[in-house]
């Protein structure tokens, strides 16, 4: 039974200083019970059981992705709040109420009032007397001054990142057992109890910066205490399985003076040290000098970590940003429909598994063309275990060694019917495809993206409210008995106490004069927000940062990530390099985005001072693997005209590029879809007509270098001229190294790129001339003869630069073959 609502007044997000400040505690203990929507409730209960001094437990379960899912669910008649809220509360409420620990969570998503009712229902079933507060954004009808019936409304799923103020008001007015919010900045969920308990004001920016630092370190849960950290190939990150099995969620001890210590439970597993803290510090940080939250913009470049024990680390050095200490506007998320996604997966194992997967892809595309002509360009295919990460191939050996692979096909369509049809055609592989396939999984759903917009503080409104339950004392004793609560085994606690991570592990400088993988020198964690990705480079041995900074340049980053950029899912990706004077600001049009993807200007490097690490940011790298259809249909006619014009003018070979939707590969040799399917039809299998992959010469067989010559020398030889190739002039392709000047078309002498070349019998061609030579006689026999003759005549001399005569010749060959 719930009492009537108690509602607060309507407020905007303009910052107003607090009045009648009161310091309620000298130190407040704030724990993280969940770092994302899929976290483990039992781990949160263990933290409550082990750390009795916890004052607050924060469940951070709302990401931008899950917010879109909640909007889609509510739009279709489902729940607008996290459906697991009852599971969490059934497990945590009894002990939290007994200890007096307040639970703060953003599981309300776009329907906090619905979540509030569910929590009250769970409390009633448990026989608990509790109060549940809500703090949420309020939207108004256009042209009116009142909210929708006085209730929270998502306004089409729109939500704005709120700060800590609404939660602080809940604590001041209601002192509830549970606070449920809508979209609130992650760090603000943790900052709010600090402001309330320690008597901070909104202009205490130095204190707010330290509090926000604590919140940022805690917000991802076990990522601070050893989760997403263990790596068996790294001696500094390899931990015993028992340590990984019993990770402790983190908590922070914050003093009124801004002193912050992050900790894990005594006797628990996991690792808490400067390395795990540094990874989490830089996680999802776009600009370390200006990390923006609704309450304060902080500069984390001077943050340092001091281990006090195996379970506690002191954190200091966060300060307000020198440019803007408080943001003038807030970030608003607006869900937008971007089509229907359909997908399918099937597994193959054993002999010729990859060839069977490729045949399956060919069949599904053929069936789709029969039923819905013209939609194959909306479908992307890749083989998990072979090329799903777009790693460069080392030749036939890597193909033959793959005995267990999985084909996946993704499509993004304008119509739902097209997405459903893809799942139907894919399922037909069971009885119509190659032998030995199994484990088919298909699905379809509406694809939602969140559009981001900055809005003024005055335009964002919020309010609070409270409900509480009334239950009799007999009900409480019947339902809420200590005997029924899960207990942490004491024996387990003892064992974990005996095996702590040795924080004194000796770190030594990276060796010189030998080839070493990067992960033996440093560790990293990548994070993404929308289409931006950033990753940290943190050396195991701090002084190695100076050597790493000589290697990790924008050009180096682009080269390492080029396997992703060269197969962009965007149609007709323009590979022209950007002008050096082009601004690094984020483009607003997709055309600008495409050129941004292949430019070094999209790479930002930031040197972190006290943490002896470096953060690398790449703007617009993480694009959907599925083609974005928005705007493509309107430009199809223009694109076709542009293609015709390019074919008449092209002699550089850089315009007919291979992207994720138009290439196939056999034994390390790339083919366009058209010729790949044509060669398959001629013999009905993949054993004939296809050119064999290049056999590596024994003297060139070696482990690829993972790091520059700062740590070692180079013995790489150019496959074309057989001279030494140095890192700054090296291009690596299919296990071979080339000078940039040697990476040219054997027919026309034009410069090649990773996305514009074709290879036949170890001879390189641009795609334009490669296709042209095939069309002359319907095969490549005369091409091989010409290549042998050219090699005999010219020896190892470089092909000439393309001239105007070559351009004229390319034009003439489109209509008449050479005599």
Automatic annotation (TrEMBL):
The entry's keywords: Actin-binding, Cytoplasm, Cytoskeleton, LIM domain, Metal-binding, Zinc
Domain LIM zinc-binding: 716-776
InterPro entries, A to Z: AtuA-like_ferredoxin_dom (IPR056362), AtuA_N (IPR010839), Znf_LIM (IPR001781)
Region of interest (Disordered), ranges: 466-489, 791-819
UniProt-listed Pfam families: AtuA, AtuA_ferredoxin, LIM
Ranges of biased composition (kind: Basic and acidic residues): 476-489, 808-819
One GO cellular component term: cytoskeleton
Molecular function via GO: actin filament binding; metal ion binding
Database matches in SMART domains: LIM
Record-level GO BP terms: actin filament bundle assembly
Subcellular location as annotated: Cytoplasm, Cytoskeleton
Keyword Metal-binding: yes
Subunit structure: Interacts with F-actin.
The name this protein goes by in its record: (thale cress) hypothetical protein
Organism name: Arabidopsis thaliana
